[in-house]
Amino acid sequence: MQHALALARKGMGLASPNPMVGCVIVREGQIVGEGFHQYDWRDHAEIVALKSAGDKARGATLYVTLDPNPLNSGQGFERLRAANIEVFTGVCEEEARRLNEPFACWIRTKKPFVTLKSAMTLDGQLALPRPEKKSGKSSSKRRIWITSEESRAEVHRMRHAADALLTGIGTILADDPLLTDRSGLPRRKRLLRVVLDSKLRLSLNSRIVKTSDDDMLVFTALPLISPKARKLQNAGAEVIRAKNKNGRIDLAAVVAELGRREILNVLLEAGPTLNGAALAADIVHKLFLFYAPQIAGDNQVPFALAPKLLLPPLQHQNVKQFGPDFALEGYLQDVYRNH
Ligand SMILES: NC(=O)c1ccc[n+]([C@@H]2O[C@H](COP(=O)([O-])OP(=O)(O)OC[C@H]3O[C@@H](n4cnc5c(N)ncnc54)[C@H](OP(=O)(O)O)[C@@H]3O)[C@@H](O)[C@H]2O)c1
Prior knowledge:
The protein folds into two domains: 2-99, Cytidine Deaminase, domain 2, CATH 3.40.140; 112-331, Dihydrofolate Reductase, subunit A (3-Layer(aba) Sandwich). 27% of the residues lie in helices and 22% in strands. The chain has helices at 2-9, 45-53, 75-82, 93-99, 101-109, 149-161, 169-175, 207-210, 227-234, 251-260, 272-280; strands spanning 22-27, 30-36, 61-64, 113-121, 164-168, 192-196, 216-220, 238-241, 244-245, 248-249, 265-268, 286-292, 315-322, 325-331. The strands form three sheets. The chain has a nine-stranded mixed beta sheet. β1 (22-27) and β2 (30-36) form a beta hairpin. The protein is globular, with a radius of gyration of 22 Å. NADP nicotinamide-adenine-dinucleotide phosphate (NAP) is lined by residues 118-120, 126-127, 146, 167-171, 174-175, 196-199, 201, 248-249, 251, 269-274, 277, 301.
């Protein structure tokens, strides 16, 4: 089953909007067939494995990480048992469930699974004070990384697993990031870069706009016929007039729109304003927080601005090491709850 899970992971970036599924066929202690699902291949992992095994599949044992689609849940087992095939379930269940939680979330709610990722200092600051120039002014735009190369490589793996990256205009104005998947791993669809920008402050000269190639979505409160909206559209960005809630873009409407576009897995990489708003709006399922062994010394850019918000303790926490940094992973919502 561990090998079937490893095969399923090969579908990362390639299976969405379908689940990642791996399958191994074993006969007399030998692997006689294996496969995983890729959306473009159409065949499910079991079919790929059965085709590769051919006649050797007779009398063999098939290990499959299974499709967690609740619409089909249990029906396949009944049919197999009715055909006198022995069926065992629950092998490595936790691992298989975690692997496909974005699919499980989307198939149940039609909304994407949202992971909030942040990189911060030990005192919870998302940015270091910018170094002073000789003139005494702080130098602008030069990005100072908080976390190590190892952590940043992990972020690219997370982007590879995601269908969309979500950020706020504050981050674009402060850092001018590209927000691309630079993992070098294969993916079927481009990573969709989504910016929330009510007043369309996004510059046509920003790196994200300059590199847009059918992979940029801007949610705004302005009418789509406004001159700035037109300019952004001409530069290749899709602009969407978003619903408004308490004077801000309605985050529930944003995730619903992404779900309609078959976005299963969203990585939220934003500053304190949008982090706080996303937590308050309850759209975040999981936190992935990188901590670098540094102290910022001021409190200008905290992790999240969400006054009076008290979240429940994280569930299923996990701590991982990346070079000199560590990351805390934990859940705010469990997509498999009640299932
Ligand atoms: N270390 C990290 O992991 C990390 C990651 C990202 C950013 N940062 C840092 O964060 C700082 C920027 O923080 P920030 O708070 O200005 O940026 P932000 O949270 O990325 O963007 C905030 C802006 O998004 C817009 N927005 C649209 N809809 C919103 C909604 N529903 N709720 C909240 N905001 C919404 C608002 O501008 P409009 O009202 O104009 O729409 C708001 O001012 C920079 O110093 C950057 O380096 C750090």
